């Protein structure tokens, strides 16, 4: 089925030369697109894999030049790397670059992703020794700093990047303090009941974890290098490396004034990945995919969502490419999934915990840190998370997609008493 307004692409421009952009280009070529394809990226590197940046790159197990993404041969792509997009003219069908050049397109795919949320005080964020992790150069600078054996690493934020970075630092023997404004790590994603397991992992690894704590200011020495962090309510800690892990910001500023519905929450799309204008109508020949795309998902009841998951970027990129080719007969409905490895524990998830009002451990035990926890909302199963126990996840994924009752699987041979409990999500997740 060909969607209205979509025609066989001529000149295609993909803004965002990362995972989603590359996989979209592959899907276009695989789908028979013969016209020119140009990928625009603000970094000077070919697309690379980002998950290792907060793990194996920091420990020195992998070099940044070893994480380039594999791609199919013979794609015949043009590259504009190290040239950020700064504007979009839909009338002229052109993308403006920071170099002053303009690139014409017939069809456009937006995959500009996210960037690390900076420390909110710019003068402190610019201090020597203050780092964030998003790009390859970020990770390389931080790796060099960690290799110099700092006296203490301070990590502000206990989300996935913060916890993974803490794991990497402990793996190379560095003293680490993690400051978390919430009661447990990953509280906004897992809730405090399961987040307490992660807190235990931090403690057993020797991390100085400080929950319900906020940093008021970063202090510098006479040479402009960070030397300490001062806490809200009093107290301070010395550190010569600070990793700011406060989440991500979607890269939408370059679309200001273009007529596209875009804001800090993402680029608005319909279920076919077609970008919407300010009136809520699809823009002819323009789609979006990956972290930056905000779209309606059939399993999410409270409005459009944007996912920051590796597998989602791959799947949505392929979907957006097929939409450009006019070959989609159903909206995008891929089940969200993510994974994280920290402190030698593999954490995997399917579905979304957003708004969950119940959680039940259905296999294993929290004490052993080997279990499956299933989340419910209003009596329906919405997510499942495993710690070193992935065998049951495909079964729970099927139950989530079928909108089964919560909890969906009872009476399994490896299952003890299932006792649903309050997940313990903060009413308003705190910021450091």
CATH H-level homologous superfamily name of the largest domain: FAD/NAD(P)-binding domain
The largest sheet, given as strand count, sense and whether it forms a barrel, is:
6 strands, mixed
Mean pLDDT: 94
Number of strands: 27
Q: Structurally, how many domains make up the residues?
A: 3
Q: Roughly how many Å is the radius of gyration?
A: 22 Å
Going by helix content, strand content and strand pairing, the class is: alpha/beta
| Beta-strand residue percentage | 25-35%
Q: In terms of per-residue confidence, which ranges show pLDDT below 50 for 5 or more consecutive residues?
A: 1-8
Q: Helical content, roughly? A: 10-25%
Query: Which of globular, elongated, flat, extended, rod-shaped describes the shape?
Result: globular
Task: Identify the CATH architecture of the largest domain.
Answer: 3-Layer(bba) Sandwich
> Which strands sit side by side, in order, in the main sheet?
3-2-1-7-21-20
Distance between the termini: 48 Å
């Amino acid at each position: 089925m060909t969607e209205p307004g979509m025609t066989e692409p001529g000149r295609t421009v993909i803004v965002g030369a990362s995972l989603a952009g590359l996989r979209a280009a592959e899907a276009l070529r695989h789908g028979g697109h013969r016209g020119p394809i140009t990928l625009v990226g603000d970094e000077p590197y070919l697309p690379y894999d980002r998950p290792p940046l907060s793990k194996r790159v920091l420990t020195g197990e992998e070099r940044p030049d070893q994480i380039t993404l594999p791609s199919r041969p013979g794609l015949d792509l043009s590259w504009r790397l190290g040239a950020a997009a700064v504007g979009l003219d839909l009338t002229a069908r052109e993308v403006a670059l920071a170099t002053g050049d303009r690139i014409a397109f017939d069809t456009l795919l937006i995959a500009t992703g996210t960037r690390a949320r900076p420390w909110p005080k710019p003068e402190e964020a610019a201090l020597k020794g203050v780092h964030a992790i998003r790009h390859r150069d970020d990770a390389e600078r931080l790796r060099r700093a960690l290799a110099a054996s700092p006296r203490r690493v301070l990590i502000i934020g206990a989300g996935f990047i913060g916890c993974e970075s803490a794991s990497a630092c402990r793996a190379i023997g560095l003293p680490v303090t993690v400051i978390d404004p919430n009661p447990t790590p990953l509280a906004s994603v897992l809730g405090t009941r399961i987040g307490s397991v992660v807190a235990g992992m931090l403690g057993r690894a020797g991390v100085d974890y400080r929950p319900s704590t906020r940093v008021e200011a970063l202090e510098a020495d006479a040479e402009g290098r960070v030397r300490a962090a001062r806490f809200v309510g009093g107290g301070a800690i010395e550190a010569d490396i600070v990793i700011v892990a406060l989440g991500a910001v979607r890269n939408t500023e370059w679309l200001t004034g273009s007529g596209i519905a875009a804001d800090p929450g993402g680029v608005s799309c319909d279920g076919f990945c077609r970008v919407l204008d300010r009136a809520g109508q699809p823009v002819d020949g323009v789609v979006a995919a990956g972290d930056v795309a905000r779209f309606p998902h059939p399993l999410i009841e409270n409005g459009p969502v944007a996912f920051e998951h590796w597998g989602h970027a791959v799947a949505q990129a392929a979907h957006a490419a097929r939409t450009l080719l006019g070959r989609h007969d159903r909206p995008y409905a891929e089940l969200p999934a993510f994974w994280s490895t920290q402190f030698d524990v593999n954490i995997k998830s399917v579905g979304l915990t957003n708004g969950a009002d119940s959680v039940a451990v259905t296999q294993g035990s929290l004490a052993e840190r080997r279990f499956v926890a299933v989340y419910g909302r209003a009596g329906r199963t919405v997510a499942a998370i495993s710690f070193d126990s992935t065998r049951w996840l495909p079964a729970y994924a099927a139950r989530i997609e079928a909108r089964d009752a919560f909890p969906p699987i009872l009476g399994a041979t490896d299952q003890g008493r299932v006792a649903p409990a309050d997940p313990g999500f903060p009413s308003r997740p705190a910021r450091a």
